[in-house]
Amino acid sequence: MRILLFSGKGGVGKTSLAAATGLQLSRLGYDTLVMSVDPAHSLADAFDLGDSLFHSKTGDPYRLTDKLAIHEVNIQKEIKRHWREISSYVISVLRTTGINEVEAEELAILPGMEELSAMMYVNQHRREGRFQVVVLDCAPTAESLRFVSMPTTLDWYMKHIFPFHRGLAKAVRPIANRVSPVELPTDSYFANIADLFAKLDGIPELLEDPNVTSVRLVTNPEKMVLRETQRAFVYFSLHGLTVDQILVNRVLPESVQDSFFEEWRANQARIIEEIETYFAPVGIKRVPLFTREVLGQQRLEELANTIFADGEDPAAVLRTEAPYHFVKANGHYEVRVALPFAAKGEVGLFKKGDELVVEVGTLRRHIGLPTTMSNLTPTRARLENKVLTVEMKEV
Hints:
The chain is α/β, with parallel strands linked by helices. It has helices spanning 14-27, 43-46, 75-82, 84-95, 101-107, 113-128, 141-160, 162-179, 187-199, 203-207, 223-238, 262-279, 297-307; strands spanning 2-8, 32-36, 62-63, 68-72, 133-137, 213-219, 243-251, 283-288, 324-329, 332-338, 347-352, 355-360, 363-368, 377-384, 387-393. The radius of gyration is 23 Å and the shape is globular. The two termini are 45 Å apart. The model has no long low-confidence stretch (mean pLDDT 88).
């Protein structure tokens, strides 16, 4: 199964491009699912489905054609399916503070529930072989990074913290529940967490395999949007995902010669040149600004015809370069991490157990070290030609 993950700053046109890509894949014969991972769903609106059956009762993939289905994750339905014990406990705690039941139910929708639910569906589709390609229409950049980092974070929690929490709660629950104003969670609460984790098994490896998962970053030819696209590229690299294409959306076509747009055209030309310089050797695809809103299947097909004018296959693997490497050079080991656009003052690192922790700004990435390097200490680091090289030695 191929996974194409569309991400970028809010409002750049991710949903339209993801939907158009799904249409092209279905026309090429792939059984395709386009799934919205953005809590502010707009996928059904892109297809102009209105209040059709898509919005009805199932919360499951909705077939548009024999080869194309779309899915907007409905968090209320997912709570009933996957998060019942966790949600019930959070609601009971909130109720003790005086919050009414309706407010408590709203507040019990914790950050990350929607993203994890979507990942469980991706894993389920992979195991069942239900779709050949899954196109993920992700939330804006920050939420997308949470989406891809959650499996690793949850894996760490389940291995290092969860057993202790569960054992401690079991030991002190009989006494604590007598004196505490809030009862400790029951063991079914912890069983629910363990069950959810089992449904995510294999997701980190799936996302980090460039032959399976490719990130397609969507941007506009504007300076503010470009800066966020650059940061997204760094962060996805740090999380082990491969960005294999940049889509520059809403480029003014050559046919627009009105003097009103002269400065816009000049500015877009400068930004596009900057994009091509910064992201090389990643491929750049320009998508023109349309004369009207891209809404409905017919408009999306026109968009797909424009993007894939030569019958291009969006499922093709365009780049497989790993974001970091482990090497042995000059008698010592090195960890080489691709950090395009990062400045020296922004990068920090330290070693914790058998992990090398790299920080860029506010983001932290845990890089698990191979056995041969787990007992070594980082002694020197240098940032050259967009690559952070960390020397690992015995001290």
